[in-house]
Known about the structure:
Elements: H1 13-25, H2 30-44
Amino acid sequence: xAPRKAFPLRIDAKVxxxxxxxxxxxxxxxxxxxxxxxxDALRRxxxxxxAGPADQDAQ
Length: 59
């Protein structure tokens, strides 16, 4: 697994609640859901290779 970088994230409470509900629906943690969403957005924008060992989207 690739090394991970931890950092604090300030986020609006309503956005966090929505992400938490979405994460629960997909059986992910909030952290994993945020990473999933970021990877998807980066991939769609052409700013991230489409596949790699750190991709764990299939949860």
